[in-house]
Specification:
The chain has 378 residues and is an alpha/beta fold. It is 40% helix and 20% strand. It has helices at 28-46, 51-58, 62-74, 138-152, 170-179, 190-201, 252-256, 258-265, 267-274, 282-305, 319-332, 357-370; strands at 49-50, 78-82, 93-97, 103-109, 113-120, 125-132, 158-164, 186-188, 210-215, 219-225, 228-230, 244-245, 250-251, 310-315, 349-351. The strands form four sheets. Strands 6-5-4-7-8 form a five-stranded mixed β-sheet, sandwiched between helices. β7 (158-164), α5 and β8 (186-188) form a beta-alpha-beta unit. α1 (28-46) crosses α3, α4 packs across α5 and α8 (258-265) packs antiparallel against α10. The chain is globular and about 65 Å long. It starts with 27 loop residues before the first helix and ends in an 8-residue tail after the last helix.
Length: 378
């Protein structure tokens, strides 16, 4: 997608810390669109805000802010009320996001399973469904899932559709657009979608960047640098699953990926995990120990080369399993019997903010392309 550009950019800030309104090379219509997004993003992140506070956050003039607020109110995206404790005047009115003003659908696609979620403008999930996929007819399965959730919420203003998949094609997007009443989907890979969820509605802070590891059928990594997803040449950044890791020098996917977990604990217990059930077993504990022993190698590499402020681990596995894996990683990093070095400089590790963050990130794509500030502008 055009806005997901990588690399350093010049910080466009005034001395007071507010974004500049003038953007070289943009036409007047593009500037107006960006200013609307700036105001809506400020309200979403920091609201409720008065006009004066919006001016400090955006750097826009009073009349410009008033016109934008009028448009957002007409579109039912913001609401206003008097702030208690303030005197009379324009600054006594504050403006807040109206989450039910827009909705979006996000789909996470794997080879044989999918997840679909409906979110409002604040990022709150209102509906979530898991469904099976036939590899021979993925488009048909996705279309059926989208139609079903859209029909159940036909009264809501659904803005668009986002898809998170690592092997989804333009042709498949065209087919979905031809079948669906919703506009052509926006598509990103799974890690980028999860990073966008963290950046937009999660606990991400700009300083130091963010590394995200996704554990699924395979193991992937993604990076946020200055708030922008970094994809690398041909989008190959983060392909850590094929690394040879651990003292036995085996491929990471074969030890940490879901197929390894399934073979270790059995089909029945694996299904229980994907259903969100928390339990402990000797076979699961053994997988956690082996996974941590191999996962530490790419984490050391990330910390050494990128030094992110935090390394997050996301998965469809229950929160308790991810926390146990992170705890085991903290044990592994202090064990010099297999690695003859201490690694106190490794970035802090914690679970991703959301269960199902990939689908949430996919659902944010229509908002980031139409209403909210995309990563390259935020």
């Amino acid at each position: 997608m055009r806005y997901l550009r990588s690399g350093p950019r010049r910080l466009q800030t005034q001395d007071m810390g507010a974004p500049r309104v003038k953007t070289i090379g943009l036409r007047s219509g593009e500037i107006a669109d960006r200013n609307i997004r700036v105001i809506l993003e400020a309200i979403r992140r920091h609201g409720p805000l008065t006009r004066m506070e919006l001016g400090r956050h955006s750097g826009l003039s009073g009349p410009g802010i008033t016109n934008i607020l009028r448009r957002l109110a007409d579109q039912k995206l913001v609401t206003s009320h008097r702030r208690n404790g303030l005197g009379s005047g324009a600054t006594a009115t504050e403006f807040a996001l109206r989450p039910e003003g827009a909705f979006s659908i996000g789909v996470k696609i794997r080879q044989r399973r999918g997840e679909i979620v409906l979110i409002d403008l604040s990022g709150q999930a209102h509906d979530r469904v898991y469904f099976s996929l036939d590899p021979a007819d993925r488009v048909g399965a996705v279309h059926a899932a989208v139609k079903d959730i859209a029909d159940r919420h036909a009264a809501l203003p659904i803005l668009g559709l986002g898809i998170a998949a690592n092997d989804w094609t333009d042709e498949q997007s065209d087919q979905i657009a031809a079948l669906s009443s919703i506009a052509r989907p926006y598509v990103e890979n799974e890690c980028t979608a999860s990073l966008l969820a963290e950046r937009t509605i999660g606990s991400f802070t700009r300083e130091g960047g963010l590394a995200m590891i996704i554990i699924d059928d395979d193991v992937q990594a993604g990076f946020l640098i200055r708030g922008i997803p970094y994809s690398g040449v041909h989008g190959r950044a983060g392909s850590i699953g094929e690394m040879l890791t651990g003292p036995d020098n085996v491929q990471l996917n074969t030890v940490v990926g879901f197929e390894s977990l399934r073979s270790r604990i059995g089909d029945q217990e694996f299904t229980r995990l994907l259903d969100g059930e928390e339990f402990s077993s000797p076979s699961l504990s053994q997988w956690i120990r082996e996974a941590a022993g191999h996962l530490l190698d790419p984490i050391i590499a990330m910390a050494g080369f990128l030094a992110p402020s935090v390394v997050m681990i996301g998965s469809d596995l229950p929160q308790g399993v991810i926390e146990a894996l992170i705890h085991q990683l903290s044990i592994e990093r202090r064990d010099t019997s297999t690695r003859p070095l201490l690694t106190p400089w490794i970035s802090p590790m914690k679970p991703a903010s959301f269960s199902g963050g990939v689908a949430l990130g996919a659902a944010l794509l229509p908002f980031l392309n139409t209403l909210l500030l995309p990563p390259a502008s935020a």
